[in-house]
């Protein structure tokens, strides 16, 4: 279910890999990615292959910030038509809303959402591939790219209020602190960037509406990778609502502007049910959260939207055939033995 992403997602991969003492072309072949994806940014390549590639590079080079190093070299132009559309928006708010509208079309596993409060804005990024596996490098790459986009609008001196990652802290945080220049927090409930709401109202005096229309037309021509299906929309809402404790079919229906019966009926037409989608997202996130040794089971339970630890424990045993504590112990043992 992970789908495709633009080969531009590997921009700067070759340079970062070589500096890390790795052979980028050999690695691409190992993970069934065509070497020409480093020179042709519009190829569609499997998201899961990119994920496995980046994790392998970090593991073999011993560089925990491999994905972050790739992000640091990114330019707005590397985002193709989406970068052009964002650059030509009259305010940063509209640029980020454009990113929220189209990010999933260019990377089928990426869900970018804006969550506003009276004073701050959370730019949240979730990678949901539909299968288990480490996501540290891909997540840090995605968050790092958005940070570089924000600096394009705000200037290189701009810093967010917080940068948050759901995975545990690296052994060496030097590159994280240097790149973001602010409080970087690990083991959090979400991946993303927190900034002042006032920042989003910054005007872009060079915005060109004509270029923005052209970029939007180009983006609308991209294959939608199933985003016209209700299943994809519901999955995105489940990802953002799950930890709030308000992830019900009624709430999702309200967000979609329909009633719950319509949600059930249309999902059934696509061969899915609401409960299956929730369980699928929970299974994937559970493997991510349990990999973090700093999270206790009660916290994992809350992040997955369970009202009690006992409810989470029953669900986990039904899904995986063993208690969550046993699975966590097995993962730690595997990590220790590497």
Mean pLDDT over the residues:
88
Number of helices: 16
Which CATH first-tier class of the largest domain would you pick? Alpha Beta
Content-based structural category: alpha+beta
CATH architecture of the largest domain: Alpha-Beta Complex
Task: Give unreliable regions as ranges.
Answer: none
Walk me through what this model shows.
The structure is a single chain. This protein is α+β, with helices and mostly antiparallel strands and 338 residues long. The chain has 2 domains: 4-217, Alpha-Beta Complex (H-NOX domain); 230-336, Homeodomain-like (Arc Repressor Mutant, subunit A). Helices cover 52% and strands 9% of the residues. The protein has 16 helices and 7 strands.
Spell out the blueprint of helices and strands.
Elements: E1 4-6, H1 13-19, H2 24-30, E2 44-46, H3 47-61, H4 66-72, H5 81-87, H6 92-106, E3 110-116, E4 120-127, H7 136-154, E5 162-164, H8 174-180, E6 183-185, E7 192-196, H9 209-220, H10 230-241, H11 249-256, H12 260-269, H13 274-290, H14 297-303, H15 309-320, H16 324-336
Parallel strand pairs: 5-6
Antiparallel strand pairs: 1-2, 3-4, 4-7, 5-7
Helix pairs in contact: 4-7, 5-6, 5-9, 10-13, 11-12, 14-15
Relevant terms:
338 residues, Arc Repressor Mutant, subunit A, globular, two-stranded antiparallel sheet, H-NOX domain, alpha+beta, 52% helix
Please outline what is shown here.
The chain is an alpha+beta fold.
């Amino acid at each position: 279910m992970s789908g495709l992403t633009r080969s531009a997602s590997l921009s700067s991969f070759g340079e970062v890999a070589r500096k890390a003492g790795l052979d980028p072309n050999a690695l691409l072949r190992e993970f069934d990615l065509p070497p020409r994806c480093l020179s042709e940014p519009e190829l569609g390549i499997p998201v899961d292959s990119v994920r496995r590639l980046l994790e392998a590079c970090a593991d073999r080079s011993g560089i925990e910030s491999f994905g972050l190093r790739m992000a640091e070299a990114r330019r707005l132009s590397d985002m193709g038509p989406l970068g052009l559309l964002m650059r030509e928006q009259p305010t940063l708010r509209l640029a980020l809303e454009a990113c929220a509208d189209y990010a999933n079309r260019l990377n089928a596993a990426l869900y970018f959402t804006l969550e506003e409060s009276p004073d701050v804005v959370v730019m949240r990024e979730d990678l949901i591939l539909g299968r288990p596996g480490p996501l540290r490098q891909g997540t840090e790459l995605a968050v790092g790219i958005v940070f570089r986009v924000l600096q394009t609008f705000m200037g290189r001196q701009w810093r967010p209020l917080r940068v948050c990652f759901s995975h545990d802290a690296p052994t060496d945080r030097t590159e994280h602190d240097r790149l973001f220049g602010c409080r970087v927090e690990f083991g959090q409930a979400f991946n993303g960037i927190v900034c002042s709401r006032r920042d989003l109202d910054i005007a872009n005096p060079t915005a060109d509406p004509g270029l923005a229309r052209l970029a939007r037309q180009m983006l609308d021509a991209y294959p939608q990778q199933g985003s016209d299906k209700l299943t994809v929309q519901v999955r995105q809402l489940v990802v953002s609502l799950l930890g709030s404790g308000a992830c019900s079919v009624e709430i999702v229906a309200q967000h979609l502007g329909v009633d719950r019966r319509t949600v059930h009926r249309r999902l059934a037409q696509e061969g899915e049910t609401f409960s299956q989608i929730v369980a699928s997202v929970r299974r994937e996130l559970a493997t991510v959260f349990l990999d973090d040794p700093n999270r206790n089971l009660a916290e994992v339970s809350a992040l997955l939207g369970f009202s009690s630890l006992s409810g989470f424990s029953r669900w986990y045993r039904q899904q995986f055939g063993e208690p969550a504590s046993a699975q966590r112990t097995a993962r730690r043992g595997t990590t220790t033995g590497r």
